[in-house]
Every structure is written in C-alpha cells, then in structure tokens.
Amino acid sequence: MAELGFEVLGLDIDPAKIEALTRGELPFHEPGLPELLLKHVQSGRLRFTTSYEEVGAWADVHFIGVGTPQKPGETAADLRFVDAAVTSLAEHITQDALIVGKSTVPVGTAARLRDLLAETRATAGLDGTVELAWNPEFLREGYAVKDTLTPDRLVVGVESAHAEGLLRQVYAKSLTEGTPWIATDFATAELVKVAANAFLATKISFINAFSEITETVGGDIGTLADAIGHDPRIGRRFLNAGAGFGGGCLPKDIRALQARVSELGLDRTMRFLAEMDDINLRRRDRVVDLAVQVLSHHRDGIARSAGDTASPVPSPATVEVLNGTKVALLGVTFKPHSDDVRDSPALDVANRLFTAGADVAVYDPQGNANAARRFPRLGYVDSLEKALVGADLIILLTEWDEFRQMDPEYVGRLVDQKLLIDGRNVLAPRPWQDAGFTHAALGHRFSPAQSATEGS
Length: 456
Ligand code: UGA
Known about the structure:
- By secondary structure, this protein is an alpha/beta fold.
- Helices cover about 45% and strands about 10% of the residues.
- It has helices at about 15-20, 35-45, 50-60, 80-90, 110-125, 145-150, 160-170, 170-175, 185-215, 220-230, 250-265, 270-300, 315-320, 345-355, 370-375, 385-390, 400-405, 410-415, 430-435, 450-455; strands at about 10, 45-50, 60-65, 95-100, 130-135, 155, 180-185, 325-330, 360-365, 380, 395, 420, 440.
- Strand 9, helix 15 and strand 10 (about 380) form a beta-alpha-beta unit.
- The two termini are about 50 Å apart.
- Uridine-5'-diphosphate-glucuronic acid (UGA) binds near residues 137, 200, 242 and 249.
- Uridine-5'-diphosphate-glucuronic acid binds near residues 139, 247, 249 and 334.
C-alpha cells in the first residue's frame, strides 16, 4: 500500500514483531518484500504501532489480514483473531471509516461481523460511521509482492456504493491497468476465495490420483499432465504431480469449507474434498513406501513394500529398512521461495523417516529454522553438500532451484549410495541414470532394472 502511494500504519498486537518491522526487519522470508519494507520505512510512508487508539483515530480504511487457522483438533476455521480485530477496531475508531476484511473466512462471517461492529459501536456510543467490506486475498507466498501490486483480479464484497467507491480509490492503479473488478455481496466474496483454493487443491489431487495409476501400471505422469494441459479448458498449471500440497492455506481451507457446509446442513456437497485431502496425504505415504522399495532393492535385489505407511507408527518393514539409513532430505518448506513449513509434506515425510530410525540430514535454503522449531530432533545442516556427504539415499521434496541445478556427477562423488527419489518431478532421469544413480520419482512405477539402464 505504501508502494502504491498511501500513508500506511501497520498494527500488530505482538510488540516484538512491531519493533522488528520498525527497524525494517521482516519476520518471514518473502522475495522482494525486505527491499520494499526498508524503502517505505525510510520514506516515512510506512509506520508501525501496537496501539488501536492510534489507528482508530487516524486511518480512513482499515485492512484486517489476521490468520484464520484450523481449530486445534477440529476441521473448522478458528475465527478468534478476526473477531478480536473487528471488535478492537469497532471500539477505537473515532471517525468515518471502512473496515476491509482480507482474511479467509467461512461464508456468513462478514454478515455476522457487520452486526457485531454495529452493536459494539452502538453500545460504546462512538461517533462516525463505520462500514465493513470483504476483499479476499489471492496472493501466493513467494510471489506476494507481484500478486499484490499487479493482482489478476480484485473481488470486493460491499453493502454500499460508498464502500465500493472507497475501494476503487484504494485500487485505482490496478483499475487503470485493466485488472478485472468484481463488486459483489458478502457471501459471494467469501465463497470466491474458498472456491478458488478448493479448485486448486482439487487440480493437484486430480493429477496425484492419476499418479497412483501410473505408479501401478507404468506411464509418464508428466507427459499426461502436459497432454491434458494443452486443452485450454483444463490448463497445465497446478497439474504438477509430486508430494502434494501443504502450507497455511489449501489444506485448512478445504477442511474449513467442509466444516462450514456441514453446519449449513449440506453434508454431501463438499464430500469430494475429503477425498482430495486423502489423496494428498497418501502422497506422503508413497514417499516413505518408495524409500523402502529403493533401499531394499539396493540391499538385496528385491523391492519390498513398506506395508501400511498411513499409520503414525512406522510398519516393521519400514523400520527394518530405514533404521540407521542416512537420508539427505532436500527441502522442508511447503514450496520454494518461502520459509513456511506449515503442513509441509516435506517436513511430515522427514519426521516419519526419523520416527522409523533413519538418520535424516535436512537441508532447506530458507526453512531449517522454522522446521527445527517444530521438530527439533531432526538433523539439520546448513548446506546442500553437508546433506549429501555420506548419504545412502537422497529425497528431494521441495523444488528449490539449488536442487534442480544439482550436477549428478558431482553429487555422485559425495554420497555413499547413488539412490535418488524425486518427490517433485523436477530432475530429468537420464543424466542421473547416466551418472549411475537409481532414479525413482513420484507418479512413476519403480522399476529398478529399467531405471538403471533405459531411463523411465
Ligand atoms: C495458495 C493460493 O495459490 C493463493 O492464490 C491463495 O491466495 C493462498 O493459497 C491463500 O489462500 O492465501 P500458497 O499457499 O502460497 O497459495 O501456495 P500455492 O502456490 O497455491 O501452493 C500450494 C501447495 O501446492 C504447495 O505445497 C505446492 O508445492 C503444491 N503444488 C502446487 C503442487 O503440489 N502441485 C502443483 O502443480 C502446484
């Protein structure tokens, strides 16, 4: 917003975060954002505070971007933070203003918050007219700056021409650049967001379901995705088969949507999303199973199955093969260009291998510190080389450029056993096979003889 020319005051209730931001330090990794933060802290257009009094007396438009995580032990969204933010603003705004919700919320939340806002202000007897609007956020981690400055669409749920007019002023630059503008009601705006994420999750699980077929009968999942992706009605994006989706959005959003429609009495409506969730989580089982197959085949020429990999307790076959095995685990964030490990498939797999007795050396260009806070007992190393030296098995689970660019010959000189699992389908098999590696990948049948000689 400061980059767009506005005067901005950022509020958080965590004083440590506000102090760091005031010094120009970001609490997370996001490419391009540190430079913008510094630029506008220095220009004076961006300031920070912990005081609701200060923002309430100052701003014309208040954006709420607090989290709506999954409730502990449930699938529904936890709305405590968004409720607290609206209530605090309602109690402190002393002039005409617009509150704009950006958080992802269950349908019906904005209408409830509109009433909460009105009641809170009536009870407190405060001056000024304060309205609510809902403006869902579609930015992707890793591309947050670009997605914010040049969004592919703007969706606003509004209840007055005044609210829409204010938001048109806020987004004037994007509007002059031709960004599609969708002004609608609260319910549609809320649903657009969850519908988009549910669709993306479904696309990923759709191709990953086909992975289960190609893993069984053979075939090339990447070529299949390319071929259907050429149909413009389908499109190639988000059809990358691999370890599946994670992060702070897709997994919890599809669960919260199911919980919300059940509350509405529509239990069957989003039941397919439970299937998408299952397909997604089975990808992690598959990585463990493939590790057991690759290692057992290397050891005694028979690719053994791990048996039941879905249970939190590793199967005896898994422990038997993995115990003491040195695994170089490349990537631990839920995707590249982020340090976020929330619901990360890679971190889940790392933990399962560790539980089965493997000696796991985790390396991620950005995610080690966050992963170590969550699973302190895993082994973390601060370079790719350190992870590779002496490894019995390499498993790539987050497709950072540093891993895509690895030189198979060089890697072959560092490891103890030339065994590789590509959990994201980003390493061309042939150069690795030429360097003597057994190359296995998600979405591909593991056929060691072919892997060593002909390519898969
Ligand atoms: C997602 C949406 O893409 C954003 O539009 C949305 O604003 C955001 O959630 C949100 O709700 O705030 P994000 O969580 O940053 O963004 O990540 P994505 O780029 O969507 O990737 C999600 C996961 O899917 C990652 O784990 C990624 O590795 C995986 N993925 C993605 C695949 O497994 N295959 C693909 O083809 C694409």
